[in-house]
Structures are given as structure tokens and as C-alpha cells.
Design a protein that fits this description.
alpha/beta, 2-enoyl-CoA Hydratase, Chain A, domain 1, 7-stranded mixed β-sheet
């Protein structure tokens, strides 16, 4: 189980391309090339998966938040470096090929989109489990404008988020979508004032931290599994997972212990 932490732990000099800190069970990971609108160069392409894997493996991390150093979330691949032959990192590691832009994980990942998320940056956002957008956020797929084809799952994840017709519109036109339209289309979960973005995202993350971590991880696994199959098979996947979860070692006494906390939390939320 994840316990509360009152201290904040940070790593690395402030000019690292990926920053991280852990506080109260939440890891905040920040893309840190603001002068290049957090475009993904070789160093960032290699370091970001490492940091996410490190945070995912920590016992004191129950949720992660991914954001960018203002003014952008991520402008996509650094075309200057890519055009010069720079290796931007392959989506693969010892656990097998990535599905999407990130290595496999079991920890909730919340995207806090603080500004434009474009092309590869849009793929990073789509690779998160849920998204909170600043009012300054903008989203665009400019792969076709550049003349390249996505390789981090955009054509899969964007369809799942907004539907195939809107995904086609974004990819064929390269037009930007505002935060408000992204909310209406189902691309993001929430839109908040810019200064409230990280506090709001961390509040959502704390909701996961205070739940049973293994249960959250299993729910995320099930959502991934049912998204890949038919509705009929999805029913069977959930039923099988539920039976396995309630097998040997399932502690009914612990369920009763948690019930009181759940009731109190519900009362608090209804008062606000």
C-alpha cells in the first residue's frame, strides 16, 4: 500500500531534459526543454521512458502526473535534430515493444496539458490514462503536414478518444483544436484555469494514491484489455479478472475496514 509522504524529493539539475519530483505518493514528471517548446530530442526521447519506468517501480508512488515546462506541453519530435540524423529513441525496452509512446506500466498516469500538444506531443498526451487541460492547451496532429506517418499509436488512440471521423479531421487537416473543443469531443477529461492545472491534476492523482494500488493497476489493465477486443469478449475478460481477484487471499475483513473511509469520503465530496 502507498502511504502519505510529507516531504518532496527531487532529482537532477534544473537543466535536465526531464525533471521529476515525488510528494505525497504522487510523482510529477516535467518535460523540460521550454526554449524548444519541449520538442523531443534524443536526450528526452531516451530519458522520458527511463524516468516513467523508475517512478512506476517505486513503492512510494501511487500515481504519476506528466506535464511540460511552460509555454508548451510538447511540440512533438525535434525536426532539426531528426533531420540531422539524431537517434530520438526507439519505442522498445527489455519488457518488449511499447504500445504507444511509453514503456509498460502499472501506475496511473495523468497528463496535465499546459499548452500546445502537437503531433508526437499529442501522442504523449494520448498515451496517458486521462487528461487535464489548461485553458491554454491546444491539440493538433501535423504528421501529414510534415510528411510522416505516426508510429506511437496515434491512429489507434485518437480514434478511441474522439471517434474515427474527428480523428480523420484532425489528421487530414492538421488544424488545432482548442481545450474547450477537446473537452466537448472527449479528448480531455477536464479543462481548468492555467494556474490550477497542476493542483487539480495532483488532486485527481491523490484519489488514486488513497485507493488500493493493486486494484487500480488491475482496473487499468482490464480497460486496456477490453479496448483491444469485441464487446462480447470484453464481458468475459472482466468476469475472469473478477473471479481471479476474489480467489485465494481475498480479504473480506479489509473490505469492511475500508468501507467506513469510503462512506466518509463520499459524504465529504457531496458537501462540496
Amino acid at each position: 500500500m502507498v502511504t502519505d509522504r510529507v516531504s518532496t524529493e527531487a532529482q537532477g539539475p534544473r537543466d535536465d531534459v526531464v525533471l521529476w519530483e515525488v510528494a505525497d505518493g504522487v510523482a510529477t514528471v516535467t518535460l523540460n526543454r521550454p526554449g524548444s517548446r519541449n520538442a523531443i530530442n534524443g536526450a528526452m526521447g531516451r530519458r522520458l521512458p527511463e524516468v516513467l519506468a523508475e517512478m512506476d517501480a517505486r513503492d512510494d508512488v501511487g500515481a504519476m502526473v506528466l506535464t511540460g515546462a511552460d509555454p508548451a506541453f510538447c511540440a512533438g519530435v525535434d525536426l532539426k535534430e531528426w533531420g540531422g540524423g539524431e537517434d530520438l529513441g526507439e519505442p522498445d525496452d527489455a519488457r518488449g515493444p511499447y504500445r504507444g509512446p511509453f514503456p509498460p506500466r502499472t501506475t496511473l498516469l495523468i497528463g496535465a496539458v499546459n499548452g500546445p500538444a502537437v503531433t508526437g506531443g499529442l501522442e504523449l498526451a494520448l498515451g496517458c490514462d486521462l487528461l487535464v487541460a489548461s485553458e491554454r492547451a491546444r491539440f493538433a496532429d501535423t504528421h501529414a503536414r510534415v510528411g510522416v506517418i505516426p508510429g506511437w499509436g496515434l491512429t489507434v488512440m485518437l480514434c478511441q478518444s474522439v471517434g474515427v471521423r474527428r480523428a480523420r479531421e484532425m489528421s487530414a487537416t492538421g488544424n488545432y483544436v482548442s481545450a474547450e473543443v477537446a473537452l466537448a469531443w472527449g479528448l480531455v477529461n477536464h479543462v481548468v484555469p492555467h494556474e490550477e492545472l497542476l493542483p487539480f491534476a495532483r488532486t485527481l492523482a491523490l484519489g488514486a494514491v488513497h485507493n488500493d494500488r493493486a486494484a487500480v493497476s488491475e482496473m487499468l489493465r482490464i480497460y486496456d484489455a477490453v479496448a483491444d477486443t469485441t464487446v462480447a469478449e470484453a464481458w468475459e475478460i472482466e468476469a475472469a479478472a473478477s473471479r481471479a481477484w476474489e480467489g485465494d487471499g481475498f480479504d473480506l475483513a479489509e473490505i469492511e475496514h475500508r468501507r467506513t473511509g469510503i462512506v466518509e469520503r463520499g459524504r465529504d465530496q457531496l458537501r462540496t
